[in-house]
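Researcher: Here's a chain I'd like modeled. Treat it as a single chain, no partners, no ligands.
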Amino acid sequence: MKQFEPFRLDVANGCLWREGTQIALPPKPFAVLQYLVDNPGRLVTHDELLDALWPETFVQPQVLRTYMLELRKVLGDDAGQPRFIQTQPKRGYRFVAAVTEGAGTARAVVQTVVQTAVQAAQCEIKPSGFVNRSDELARLRSEFERLAHGERRVVFVTGEAGIGKTALVDAFCRAENFAVPIIVARGQCVQGVGSKEEYYPVMEALGQLCASQDGEAACNALARIAPAWLARLGRPAGTVTSDGSSPAPERMPGQLCAALEELASVKPLILVLEDLHWADESTLNLISALALRRAPARLMVLATWRQRGVPAGHPLKAFKQDLRVRKLCEEIALAPLSKSSLQQLVSGELKQEALPEGLSAFVHRHSEGNPLFAIAILEHLIAQGCLACRKKDGVTEWELRVPLEEAGTGVPEELAQMVELEIERLNPQEQSVLEAGSLTPIAFSAWAVAAALEKDAAEIEELCDGLVRRVHFVERAGEDELPGGATSPFYVFAHGLYREVLYQRQAATRRAQRHERIADRLGTLFAGREADVAREMATHYEAAGNWQRAAAALERAAQHAERRQAHAEAADLAEHARRVSKNQKSGDSPSRKTKR
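Model: Modeled as a single isolated chain. Structure tokens:
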């Protein structure tokens, strides 16, 4: 047992505790944390971690960032002022908290980083990210109740990245939710590993199962029925067959199914497999075999995956469709949080029922109801000093130090890194297409991207449709009808933060050129009807820093509004034109105009 206040790392049982409460932590993040705690005070490089946790397997180093995000949220750690895990950019990580071992004999290997703000420590956010999923929890409990009658279940929990799939699974799997003892085994699919290592998440789940309090029963069942699986875990199989022969060298899915079913006959078994969109085909075939077997079994496969995260050609879609046709699976799709649920989430994170005015609405607007993004925006506001806490009459409460309309959010650093990792997996041409798409708020048309990049519209449409099939954060949303009867498809980003990262990663001069090309193309498309799109043209010219043409377009839009007798709109446009003209007279450089 290793302790770093207020946490205890129970290596023997593979779990983390905080002041007597067990904290759910998937196996791989637990393994990362254990390795860091085992090596406190020294730099652990990216390569060292990868070699230790994925021996003889190629894994992209970026996966470590994902696990560090998860660990920091569990520990309530701050990357900017770390109490536990310090990031050494481009090198690795250092565990900086004091560690004690055994029955409390202190062995301070490194002093805890001095906190620079006592109030910030008192008001530290301990993210949970789980709120108001009562309907989904009820559905999971209903599925579990069917196990009592021997009905094996396969349940998919789906939704976009950060929507709370893992949080829902964690909430469901807590022991207090069940009237009888249960067994939970968890495995994590990892991007880039599935195509190289068969049954990767299943083996992780089996390893965790054999190390749990039910490990002896699990090992015995595997040794008798599925010895090759036990051998691949690096555990001695002993006398594993009735005739004394050696274990079969191949892992046979039917043998594992039988072993899991025997284990489930003693206690209901929940096999959790996360991020199934990265699973190998062998893992999917095993799930299918578990679902198709006819014998009664108190066994549930609970899998999470991103609806828009399935790579092109991946067998997951066909696999799920086959199970649905046979009525052998259920799907629970998580939607974004409503405004009231988001307010509840913010109140829970800040531990304050009465929130500063407008805060929850601001967070909801910028997070679009995504719990992960909402928490990141809260943390960003705190890090920027916009949201701070104070003590009043002995009570600590949060308050806004800067009006929200002035604060903005930018993109929280950790979310920006997550988005950048996804973008960098694309080729340069695809990156340019998405960057050009980010120049148009809400939705972007193929013709606009083609104009910005000076490419053929048909070629761009083909590229965009390819991206829709391959990446989870872009989807086709409809078609624009252009003058003359032509049409052009338009697309939307799954979340505004993706668009913002793509917009900001472009050089200011290049971005200005692209904005101006879109405005020029609008004028060409609507020749003779420029007034209809004058406001949109003005937006692009202004973003490009072309004040003269922006002012002229705004004046044309104001005249058009006046003809429609939209007098208030006309007045606003005319005033906007005057402000833009002042920029022209003051000689502001176009390259400095980057705000949309």
